[in-house]
Amino acid sequence: MSEKRYLFTPGPTPVPPQVLAAMSQPMVHHRGPDFRIVYERCLARLKEVYRTDNEVLLYASSGTGTMESAVANLCSPGDRVCVVTAGAFGERWAAIVESYGCEVDRLAYEWGEAPFAEDLASRLAERESGVVLLTHSETSTGVVADVRALTAAAKENGAISVVDAVSSLGAVPLETDEWGVDVVVSGSQKALMSPPGLALVSVSQAAWDAQGTLPRFYFDWERTRKAQQIFDAAFTPAVSLVIGLDVALGLLLEGGLDAAFERHVRLGRACREGIKAMGLELFSPDEDSAAVVTAVRAPDGIDSGELLLLLRDRHGVTLAPGQGALKGKIFRIGHIGYFDVFDIATALAAVELALTELGADIERGVAVTRALEAFEQPVAA
Ligand code: PMP
User: Rounded to whole angstroms, what are the CA distances from 72 to 66, 150, 210, 214, 226?
Assistant: First the structure.
């Protein structure tokens, strides 16, 4: 067993040492001035990262918590909700809606496909839904959807747009206000370079006006909004995680969001070029938009689960498996957040070695060089 561990999954992601150090400070009380300053700054930074003037509500939960909050706050029993699904996280939206006794109107694509705004517009014209649930970066397939166009289609048809940006916020452009996205949910453990445990949701005025009657308590948006307006959390916040997130957001904003988006494009390119150089086939699109996670088909005769176990247990390298029907067939390399090209190089080198150990017929000794070259190419403005 290798002693050194490498985490190359699309969440949780590596956490910068400054963030870890900030979280190891002695505990402070959440209703005193020490925390209040951090809370206020963290909430302001979140708005900057979201590119919104809307309130961004902060919860102690995983990202699924604020996904659930969107359904609980926007819907009423029996409502029809349009769910655009092309992977595991679109399916999660559908499962949440069903568990609240609402009707799911699925606009379903094959896993790996990208949804089309035109399809959404015609579906909504044919069958009305008050709320449309979208996935920005479908982490299970590596596809990043055009949520700008999808949101516009929802709006034109009078629906509230809700976007799952759990793996995209801070990695790829998401202009909450400019694109008119009503609700954006996200989580701390991906491009926001923080540990898991915090979930976020921004709420537009139209979404506040559209609240439904489903039961909710902890996730009642109004309760958290009132508390956040006076920087006095509704419940005991995850103090250390908020302190860490504040530092992480500071790092992200200091470097600049646009620079972060560009770096993610180049990381995606580097990963794809390296994979192709090895002779492997991509599952995720070979496009700059696929800047969050690269999904790769396992070579013929090799189970991707077996590959991942070897990588983890012999080499200390953790990648992500395929989900659902893609289990055993693909593996995924995350490149979001605190990530640079040498992480890509390490991941590629490890995949190359492990595949060789499994007897796969791959091209050796070229992937890392191709990745480094691809990373150097500038991104057109
Ligand atoms: N949506 C997407 C796109 C995700 O990638 C994830 C996490 N992998 C989730 C939702 C769920 O987030 P969590 O595990 O934090 O509940």
Answer: 9, 22, 12, 5, 18
